[in-house]
Records
---
Amino acid sequence: MTKKGIIEGIFSKAKFSDESKSYKIFYRNFERIIETTLPEFLVRSDNLQTIPISRIKKIKKNNTILFEKKLAGSE
C-alpha cells in the first residue's frame, strides 16, 4: 500500500471514531513541524485541499505511531 493509501486509511477510520481528537498529526509547514489533532488538521487543511498528504510527517494515536515518513536515504 502506498503512503497516501496508508494515510487515507488512518483518516477514514479516525474520522468516524469517537476518539478522533486522540489522533495527532505532525506536518511540515515550511521549515517547521506543526502538531495538531486530526479534527483541527482537517479544518486547517480544508479537508486536505490546502495541505497535501505529502507534507504529513507522522500520525500518532495516544502514544502509538501509526505512520511515520522515513528520511530520504535512511533505508
---
Amino acid sequence: MKHIWQVLRYELVYIFTRRSFLFVTFGIPLVGFLLFTAFTQVSESSGETLNLLVTSPTSPLPEGFVDPANLVSVLPASVPEGQLLRYPDEASARQALHAGEIATVYLVPPDLIEGGRLTAISPEVNPASSFGGGWMQWTLEVNLVGGDEDLAARLNQPLAVERISLTPDAPDTEDPLTFWIPYGLTVLLYLFIVTSASLLLGSLGREKSNRTLEVLLLSIPPRQLLIGKMAGLGLASLAQTGMYLTISSVLLRLSGRTSPVMAGFELPLGLVGWTVMFFVLGYLLYGGLMAAVGALVPNLRDASSLTFVILSPLILGLVLLSLVLDKPMSGLAVSLSLFPFTAPILMVTRLAIGGIPLWQPVVAAIGMLITGVLVVLATARLFRAQHLLTGQPLTLARFARTLLTGG
C-alpha cells in the first residue's frame, strides 16, 4: 500500500504541474467563461438595437383568398377577426396585394378536393423560410367537414394514446428527460473512461521511452506500480471532467437559460452511485488494457491502430445507443449491457431510463469486476524487462497472445 500511495501522489503532482494539462483543465474553461461574459454584456447593451433590426414595427398583415366555387362557406371562430379577407376575383385580390393591404393571396380552385392543391401568391418569396398559410389551411379543413371545428381538430390528431406499462418503475415516455438524461450520462461516461485510459497510456509511453519505467520497477512491484498509476491518473481525469461540468453549470445559471424541463430535477442518488461504480469498473478494465499496450508498444505512434481496436466496444456502444434508448428491454440491449466491454456505458444508459431489474446491473458489475481484475493482473506480468525492452512491432495477435500467456 505504501508504494501505491507514493505512485498515486507522484502522478497527481506531475500531471497537475504540466502546463498542457493545466491549460486544458483550467485555461480552456476560463477562456470560454470570459468569452461568454463578454458576449452576454454586448448582447445586453445592444439588445434594443437588435430588437429593432429583427422585429417589424408594424403588426402582421391579413391574408386574402379568392374562392369562386364558394368552398369556404364559414370562417372558423378560432380565426382572428380580419385575418382572412374574401375577394370576389383574382384581379381585386392582386390589386390589394400590390397596395400592401394584405400579405398573401390564396386561390382556392373548384377541384380542391380532387386535386388537393392551393395556389399562394405573395410579393416576395424567401427560399430560406417555409411558406405560411396556417389559418387558410385550417379554414379549408373546417369547411371540408361541414364547419365542425372539433371534428377537424380530431382529424388532425385522431388519437390521444395513454401508455401503461406492466414493467415496474417504467420510464415516462412523454418526458423529454427520458431521452436526454440517459444520452448525456452515456456520452459523459464514455469521455471519462477514454480520457482516463489515454492519460495512462501516455504516461507509460513517456516513462518507457526515457527508461524511467525500468528504474521504477527496480524498487516497486509491478502490480503496485500499475495500481498507483491507474488510481492517480483516474483521479486527474475526474478532476478535469468535473471542472468542465462545473463551468458549464455556472454558465447556464448566469445566462438564465436553464430549461424549465430541468427545473427542480435532481439525479436519483441510486443512479449516481451506479454511474460512479461503472466508471470505476470501466476504467479498471480499459485502463488495464491501455497499460498493456503501453508496456508492449515500442512507441506511442505505433499504438494508435491497436488503441482503436481496444476502444471499439465502447464506440460500438455509442453507435447502438439510439437502439438501446428506443428499446431498452430488447434482447440486444440486455446482452450488450451485460457484456463487460460494452456494459460500462450501456448499462448506465438503461439504468437512467428506468425499469431495469436489479439483477442485471449486479451481474454486469460482477462480470466487469472479474474481467478488470484479470486484465490488471495480466498487465502487471508484462511489466518485465523482456517486454519493456523489446523492439518488436506490436500487432493485435501478439498483444492478445502476450496478455493471455504472459510471455
---
Amino acid sequence: MAYSHYDRLSALDATFLALEDANVHMHVAAVALFEAPPLRDTEGHLDVERIRASVEAALGESPRFRQKLDRIPLFDHPVWVDDPRFNLAYHVRHTALPAPGDFRQLKRLTGRILSQKLDRGKPLWEMWIVEGIEGDRFAVIAKAHHCMVDGISGLGLLARMMRLDPDPTVEPPGRWMPRAAPGGARMVADEIWHRAWLPAALGREAMRSITNPLDVAWSVWERTAAFGETLSASLKATVSTPLNEHIGPYRRFDWTRHDLDSVGEIRARFGCTLNDVVLATAAGAIGRFLATRGVDVEEAAFRAQVPVSTRASDDRQAGNRVVMLMADLPIGETDPVARLDQVHNTMTRLKRSRQRFGVQLIEEVSDRTAPALWINFARLAARQRVFNVVITNVPGPQRPVYLLGARMDAIYPLVPLAQQQALGIALFSYDGGLHWGLHADWDAMPDLHDLAIGLDEEFERLLKLAGNES
C-alpha cells in the first residue's frame, strides 16, 4: 500500500481560516531590507535566481510551505496535504520600484500586496523580491497565512535562509517527493478517534480521583476558574473609536524604528519590561491620535489584545503556539511615567492571572470535541468588540544576519486586521533596533503616518524622562 500523509489543523489554526472573508485577510507578513551589492550578477542586476535557490534549499526544513489545504469528509475540518503541483516560481515573485524607489513607494507596494488574499488552492504563502530601493537596497516582502504560522514560526522560512556570516554559498536543495493524500475513510476514522480522546482523558482523571480526590478537585476548580476568568475578560465590550470601524479590503503599511539601547535605559530607570515600554509608548501615541479625531480618551475603555507565545524554545513545527491576553491601555493618561507604571501593573497582574490557562483550556476542549466552539468564541469576541487593537512583540537576533552575503538592515513585521479593527501593531527586535510595523485599513486610516510620528514622540518623551531622573 502506498504511503500517504496529512496534518490536521488545530482549532486555533482553523479559526484563522474561518475568520477570513472578503475584507478580513488573515495573513502575517514582514518587510525586510537588504544591501543589494553582494547579490548583483555580472551585469549589475539582482540575482533573483540565486535567491530562489536559497528558498528551495530552506524548504527542506519547512515542509508546510509545500502543502495545501484539504478537508475531512463529513466533519469539513481542514487538513494539510502535500501539493503535487507545487511551483516555486509562483510563490517567489520578482518586481521593482520605479526610480527613485523611496520608502514611501515601498510602503505603498507593501499595502497593495497585503490587500490581496492568498489562493487557497495552493500553499498559502508568497515572497516578493523588490529591486530598486533607495540606498542601493532591495526588499523581501514575506507573506503567509496565519493558519500555518504564528509570529515566531512565521519567520521560519526567511530565518532558514539567513546566516550569521556573509558566506554567499547556496546550499543544494534536498530531493522532495510529494506524499499522497489519504483516502476520505481514513481521515474520518482518524477524526473520530481524535475527538474521542477528551472524554477518555476525563474518565482517567475521574478514576484517579478515587485515590487522590483532593488533588483532582483542586485541578477541576482551577480549570473552572480559569475558564470563567477568561470568558469574563473576553466578553467585556470596549469603547467605539475610529480604529474600530468596519474595514474594507485595502491596506496601508507604515513603520518606524527605535534604538534598543534607549529602550534599555527606560527599562533600567523605571523597573519595567521591554513589552511594558512598547505598550506604554503605543498607548500614549494612540491616545493623542484619537484625541485629534474627537474621542474622549480620558474615560475610554481601550483594550489591546496581546498575543503571548507558548512555543517551546526547541519547537520548530509550523502552526500556532500562542494565547491572547486582553490588556487595558491607559490612553487617557498624559503623564508618560504614570502611564508606564499603569501598564506595568496591568501586565504583571495578567501574567499572574488564569487568562492564559483559560484560553488554552477552551482551545483544547474545542479541538478535541467541536472545533466550531473556538471559531464561534472568536467570532463573538470580534462582534462584541472586546479589543480595539492587536499589539504583538517578537524577539529577534541581536547581531546582523545575511542572505547570501547581503546584510539585512531592518525588518518590519505585520499582524492581520480583524473585523472592526482598522489598526494592528507588530514589533520585531533585531540588531540593536526595535522595529515597529503599522498595518491599517486604507479608508479608515489615511493619516497612519501621523501615528508613526506619535510613536516616535512618545518614545522620546519616555527616554528624556529616564535620562532626567537617572
---
Amino acid sequence: MSDEQSNRATAGQTKWAEKEKWAEKEKSAWLKEQKIQRSYLDDVIARLQSINDKFDLEQYGVLSYAPEKYPLYIVKTPNWDSNKKTILITGGVHGYETSGVHGAIRFLEDKALNYSQTFNIMVVPCVSPWGYETINRWNPNTVDPNRSFVENSPAEESAAVMKIVALIMAASDSELLAHIDLHETTDTDNSVFRPALAARDGVSQDNWNVPDGFYLVGDTYKPVDGFQTAIIESVKKITHIAPPDENGLIIGEPVTQQGVINYDTIGLGLCCGFSNSQYATTTEVYPDSPQATDEDCIKAQVAAIVGGLDYLIEHSLV
C-alpha cells in the first residue's frame, strides 16, 4: 500500500454513530477532528505557477474560512477564439479524490496545448482545497460540494466555480461543448464517508460494493453513449474497467454499457450538470485497487479527457 493509499484508509475517521441529525455542536466537534495532511500550496498552486508562462492563470476567488491559504484558480489555454467551442475540466470537487486533482494538472502539463488549436479549454484543478488538504469529501461546514451545484449553493466552493464559468462563457461568446469532471470512488466511501453522512443526517445509509476499476457517470437525460464509450476505450489502455456487481449494478445503479451508469446530474446538483453542456461525464477511478497504482489513476484521468476530446474531433463536433 502506498503512502497515499494509507492516508486514504485513515482519512476523516469518525466515532459518530448517533441516530439524531447533527446540530451545530456535532458539526463543530467533527471539524475539530479534521487534520491537515498535505499541502494545497505545494501540491497544486506551485505546479500551476510552474506552467503559468504557457497558460492564462486566473484567480477567481478565495475561500472565506481561510482566504490566505485557499486562493482559487482557473487555468485557460491561451488565445481564446469565439469560433472555437469550449471544454471545461474540473477536479477536486471532492478534495480527497486525489487523482482528480493531479489528473487535471497532468493534462495541463502534457496534453492541453495539443488540443488548444481546436478548443478553448478551461481547467479548475482543485475545487475544494480544504478537502484536498484534510482528505475529506465535505467542506468545513459538513456540506458536500458535489451536491451543491445549484442556485444559492450552500457550498462556497461550488458557487465560486459556477460564477467564474458563467462569467468566462458570457465574455467569450463561445459554446461550452463538453464538461469532464474528475473523481474517484475509494474504500473510504463506505468505511468513513457514508457512515458520517448517516450520522450527520440521522438517516440510515446502505453501503454499496465499491467497484474495482474505472467507471463513468453520465447524464440520464443526455447520455451521449458514443462519447462515454470512447472514454472507456481510451482508459482501457491504462487500467481496468469496473465490472457490475452480482446484481448487474455499479454503486447501486444499472449499467447502461460497459463501465457506465447515469444520474440526473442537474437534479442532484452534481458538478458535471451545472454547465449544461451537451457532452458531460464524471470519471470514477478506484485508487485502492490491487491492480492499480496512484500513477495509473492519474494517467487514467488524463486518458479519459483525451478519449473524450478525440471523440469530439473525430465526429466533427468541434
